[in-house]
Write a structure and sequence with these properties.
By secondary structure, the chain is an alpha/beta fold. It has helices at 2-20, 54-62, 80-102, 114-125, 127-131, 181-184, 186-197, 378-381; strands at residues 40-43, 70-73, 107-112, 133-139, 153-157, 170-173, 212-220, 225-226, 231-237, 251-254, 260-266, 271-277, 283-288, 295-302, 322-330, 337-340, 343-344, 357-363, 386-390, 402-403, 405-408, 414-416, 419-420, 427-433. This is Alpha/beta hydrolase.
Amino acid sequence: MWITRRRVLSLITGVALAATGLAAPAAAEPVPAGAEPRPAIFIHGSAGSAMQFRTQAKRLASNGYPIDVIEAHEYDSPNIATIITSVYADLDSRITRLLAASGADRVDLLAHSLGTFVTQGYLNSSPARAARVAHYVNLDGRPAAALPGGVPTLAIWGEGDPARTVAGATNVHFPDQSHTQTVSSEESFREIYRFLNGREPRTTSIVPQRDVRVSGRAVLFPSNAGVGEAVVELYPVSPLTGRRLTSRPARVQPVRADGSFGPLPVLPYARYEFALVRTGQATHHFYFEPFLRSDSFVRLLTSRPGEGIGALVDTSDRHTALTFQRQKEWWGDQGDELWINGRNILNGANAPRNKRVIGVFVFDDGSDGVTDLTAPLPEFFAVTFMTGMDVFIPAAQQRLGTVKIVSRQRGGGFSAMPVPNWKSSEHRVSIEINDH
């Protein structure tokens, strides 16, 4: 009923404006109180995935969005110039499916960085495409001289040129927030929710649930292609040591052809390991902080042996290699700390604010048993949003031990994330630190 009333109101308004000879402004149309929210689709940036929007998706769900109307449109960002037409066509199909499943009149699109180039191009490519989009959120990306496709737009900008705008849009600047932080921050969420719904959110927190289910995809970084012929094993782990509490996994599930897995039931305050097992390859262990509520945006980012940036990591029986990810940049020169076995590995040389680091590779460079934090590893530092450190972390020789990991965020926030000291010759370890 609310869709009909909204359309009638829109028609009456259009007739009145036509009678006066005035054009209707591109104003944001709020969702009426009590109505189901429109589907929200996130389009990531360069080398991104659904992971950048994990926190905001759970904040939306905490404010009444059904989890199945929040999706991410993922693509092979390094090859976007050659696949843009198919990315548009796939987005057409996604919108059609979501509209049919939800009964909504239109969808809302949110894009970050390179994703704003993709989305602005999509909206400008066809009036029919733009007509199926109620709102567009442009997150720290491409400026524009007009509203993309004429769609009401919120443009959120972080640090950088304060003159950046999308003409005709609601432009909001957070000069103390970095590039990815503008996607995941509490302040950004408040602006997004208000714009999409025409009212303040009930909460900006992630509200815990009792019945929590986790799903996602195992994908090759950075193409987002699904990992084939793999199995996901889910283990409960000790919050004190990170080691498995059971010898057998709580759940075992083959990865589907597109890399998807789940949903898997978990306890909201427990910690888990996701083990990605592939024949003839090192087991890849993924550790997350507790899942307070259901999460469909989990991504197990991996690569094939000898391919990608992971191929640059030195391995041996003597040391553990770790990869960290956080959807809020680490500023090693301005308050962020990442402690491993009692040593803070971040500093102004390897994680300066202007590097916008969200991915950190930590291993014993040269397998020489020596730690050197005076400079970053150049082959990693040269990659956008990444850095690398030469840190010797002794690996288990017989029985597994523990790598003590503590993260302290600038402005407050503390996470303790111990993990086992797996041998890097046989195991890969990735750790996702919350951005809130």
